[in-house]
Amino acid sequence: MNAFYAPNATHNPLRWVLPVQEQLCVGPPGRQFLFGGVGLAASVSAMEQSTGRPLIWATAQYLSYANPGSMLDIDVRTPMAGKNVTQARVVGHVGEREIVTVNAALGQRDELHSRQFAVMPRVPRPEDCDRIDHAHRDPDGLHGRFEHRGIQRAPGEDEGRSRQWIRCRAGAEMSAGLLAVIADYVPAGIRTALAQPAGANSLDNTLRIIGTRPSEWVLCDTQIFAIAAGFVHGRMHLFAESGELLATASQSGILRVFEE
Asked: Same structural domain for residues 150 and 194?
């Protein structure tokens, strides 16, 4: 069974298509659009399948919106393919309108001095944390696919720091694509940082894959670095329940403050 974000193959091995369905979208009724992380995940999936290599890193630039009912064409280019690494590029577009551009490197080498230096913070288990309900509680939209459990910030802790557990309700297999979707929740940390309803429209996302392993829940350790000139900048470390670092992400976005 294909992952919910996986694009469909075509007769051209370097072209993939993703029907933009409501369950892949976010936003208020009548103004829904494809979640940026899904666009990145679909692009990553297309590149991994086209090259036969796993993702090392990918950076997406979000250019425009794809609305429900449209078809996202995903064109893969591989300008350089070496012994261990393929440098690839994706242009995702609806007709002539470019939606997302992704640059990436894919490949794998033999293990060499493998070691993890980032340490998973000590936090309560997901079942001991309160559920977070998203502002747009559309059970048919993308947010309905995920469960979020918030972790209270410790007294004296950095105001820009927030943590939450996230899991896919559909029980999707852990993959670079699934991590790409989860990583696009960096703006969720803005609400905690400002102590008021707020978020962002993502301008980009850079995802670096350390390794994928089974884990029902992913701990998202988010740091909002700064808010300036109407933009917000932050990063996320994504840990498996067992403590292994799965990936890191960094992102900038257009700050949005919401009314309660």
From this structure: yes
Q: What is the pLDDT of residue 260?
A: 60
The predicted-structure confidence for 57-72, as pLDDT tens digits, reads as follows 999 999 999 999 999 9
Confidence of residue 213 (pLDDT cuts 50, 70, 90): very high
3-state class (DSSP) for residue 174: coil
Could you tell me if 236 and 252 are in contact, meaning their C-beta atoms sit under 8 angstroms apart? no
* Nearest residue to 248 (alpha-carbon basis) of 222, 209, 213, 216: 209
Q: How is residue 43 annotated by DSSP?
A: H
Cα separation of 17 and 216, whole Å? 28
Count of alpha carbons within 13 angstroms of residue 244, beta-carbon side: 12
What distance in Å separates the CA atoms of residue 214 and residue 244, rounded to the nearest whole number? 11
Residue 59: give its domain's CATH number.
Answer: 2.40.160.210
Give domain status of residue 15, yes or no.
yes
DSSP H or E stretch at residue 38: helix 36-51
Domain match, 253 and 137 both: yes
pLDDT of 136: 56
How far apart are alpha carbons 32 and 35 in whole angstroms?
Answer: 9
Asked whether residue 155 falls in the same domain as residue 76, the answer is no
2 belongs to a structural domain: no
The pTM of the full predicted model, rounded to 2 decimals, is: 0.95
β 204-209/25-26 pair status: unpaired
Q: Which domain holds residue 70?
A: 8-107
